[in-house]
């Protein structure tokens, strides 16, 4: 079931915060930038994964559909021991010139999130891929309903 709530996704104090990232090593705007600022360890972990991909096969698009689970334990703002950030590689590139979100990558990410959901608790997300990623939320919502059989809270700014 998908539940919509008004408020700030980053005010969540437990469970899993999942968001979409590109494969280029840039978390420069939107939710990704806010996560980079609040959870610097999640950003550093993301950068290492992208750099490792470049070093081994020089093809960052190989990251599409992968989910990277990141601790938030080095965060200066205490949010509780149970907050985990999931960087979901849903876009190869970024920009506002066209749709960058890859729907197949979104499906793969939500399959992984579902398999691992018991480890992290409640899944909290923004409208992944429907903002700066340029995707159609109705398409993405149907993908989530198809691939994630648990409860999802979608956070929308008030």
- Share of residues in strands: 15-25%
> Helix segment count?
4
Distance between the termini: 21 Å
Main structural class: alpha/beta
Taken from the alpha-carbon principal axes, the silhouette is globular
User: Percentage of helical residues?
Assistant: 25-40%
User: Gyration radius, to the nearest Å?
Assistant: 14 Å
Low-pLDDT ranges:
none
Mean pLDDT: 90
Spatial strand arrangement across the major sheet: 1-6-5-2-4-3
List keywords for this structure.
158 residues; alpha/beta; 4 helices
Structure write-up:
There is one protein chain. This protein is an alpha/beta fold. The protein has helices at residues 30-38, 40-57, 103-120, 137-147, and strands at 2-6, 15-22, 67-71, 83-91, 123-125, 152-156. Helix 1 crosses helix 2 (40-57) and helix 3 crosses helix 4 (137-147). The radius of gyration is 14 Å and the shape is globular. The model has no long low-confidence stretch (mean pLDDT 90).
Give the topology, please.
Layout: E1 2-6, E2 15-22, H1 30-38, H2 40-57, E3 67-71, E4 83-91, H3 103-120, E5 123-125, H4 137-147, E6 152-156
Parallel strand pairs: 1-6, 2-4, 2-5, 5-6
Antiparallel strand pairs: 3-4
Helix pairs in contact: 1-2, 3-4
What is the gist of this entry?
The chain has 158 residues and is of the alpha/beta class.
